[in-house]
Design a protein that fits this description.
The protein is built from 5 helices and 10 strands. It has helices at about 1-25, 55-60, 75-85, 100-110, 205-210, and strands at about 30-35, 45-50, 60-65, 95, 120-125, 135-140, 140-150, 155-160, 170-180, 190-195. The longest helix has 25 residues, at about 1-25. The chain is globular and about 55 Å long.
């Protein structure tokens, strides 16, 4: 049994190290603005997801052996990030966190480029999965779990291989995803995703959304 568990841990760590490069390139120190249509009210709403290097720890399903899952100061996330940078991670220091680890590792390749595939969002329904989340966003095969920081600001707290519709109380269509460096105080202008059949120039965005975005770089896809 120990041999089997060590092999599982070794394979999980290998994939986590591989996908960390993509996380650094695509998401680290970036913020995504997710604009969606609330299916109950038909109004436009949004959230902003901020990705820090230390958040990656919670996406992998790996844990340090001395992490009793009661730390709230983020020190294990920072430690994991530093150990990845220094190439010092070893299965001797880590463990499979729980039964969700395999699903997290399987989802990682899609999550590190989530803005390409994410088209639905909703409040987490807490049914059948032991995760402390507020919202989920993704598609029919993978999704990202989000924890609210304050207001409309969220942080990535988990990911899973599975249908996001089964993890949400009610699902809403994502209309657009913008990205920028978190430290950048200018408007969101780099557009990564627009729902098919939608023209952002004709959308009825509220004043709050309009104040946060710029459509100067936006152009309709060629037919």
């Amino acid at each position: 049994m120990k041999y089997t568990n060590d092999i599982k841990l070794q394979n999980a760590l290998k994939e986590a190290v591989k996908q960390f490069k993509n996380y650094q390139k695509n998401l680290e120190n970036k913020s995504l603005m997710i604009i969606y249509r609330n299916r109950e009210t038909n109004d436009m709403d949004y959230i902003i997801v901020q990705f820090a290097g230390s958040n990656y720890y919670h996406l992998t399903g790996l844990a340090y052996k001395d992490d009793a899952n009661d730390s709230k100061n983020g020190r294990f996330g920072s430690r994991f990030y530093k150990d990845l940078l220094d190439q010092k991670l070893s299965i001797n220091d880590l463990k499979i966190k729980d039964n969700n680890t395999a699903l997290k590792i399987k989802a990682l390749p899609s999550i590190t480029t989530c803005y390409r595939y994410t088209n639905m969002i909703g409040d987490f329904n807490h049914s059948g999965i032991q995760l402390n989340l507020d919202k989920v966003m993704g598609n029919i095969s993978t999704y990202l779990g989000l924890k609210r920081i304050s207001g409309k600001i969220y942080a990535p707290a988990s990911c899973l291989y599975g249908d996001v519709r089964k993890a949400a109380k009610s699902i809403h269509q994502i209309i657009a995803i913008f990205i920028k460096n978190t430290a950048d105080t200018s408007s969101f202008s780099d557009i990564k995703y627009v729902a098919k059949g939608h023209n952002l120039n004709n959308m009825n965005f509220n004043s709050e959304i309009k104040d946060l975005i710029s459509l100067e770089k936006y152009s309709l896809p060629s037919k």
